[in-house]
Design a protein that fits this description.
Blueprint: H1 2-35, H2 41-60, H3 63-77
Helix pairs in contact: 1-2, 1-3, 2-3
Length: 79
């Protein structure tokens, strides 16, 4: 029972923290795109798609998936 309580407490505490990370990640991606990149057109399209998906996930409340998706875009950009 203690494990369940601790797990639920962690999940509830982590949710709001992740919510704040999403906009920061999106802003970092936007800044990198605005500064220019040497990515191919295909890779640039994928980064833009991942960024849009991350924003959509954030807006729907799935912050863990948003952070994961935005991390893929950041990795492609070398961030």
């Amino acid at each position: 029972m203690k494990r369940l309580f601790l797990t639920l407490s962690f999940c509830l505490a982590a949710g709001p923290g992740m919510a704040g990370q999403c906009p920061a990640d999106m802003a970092e991606i936007d800044a990198a795109l605005a500064a220019g990149t040497s990515l191919s057109e295909a890779d640039l399209a994928e980064v833009n798609a991942l960024r849009a998906e991350g924003e959509s996930l954030h807006e729907s409340g799935d912050h863990a998936a948003s952070v994961e998706t935005l991390a893929k875009a950041k990795e492609m950009l070398g961030l």
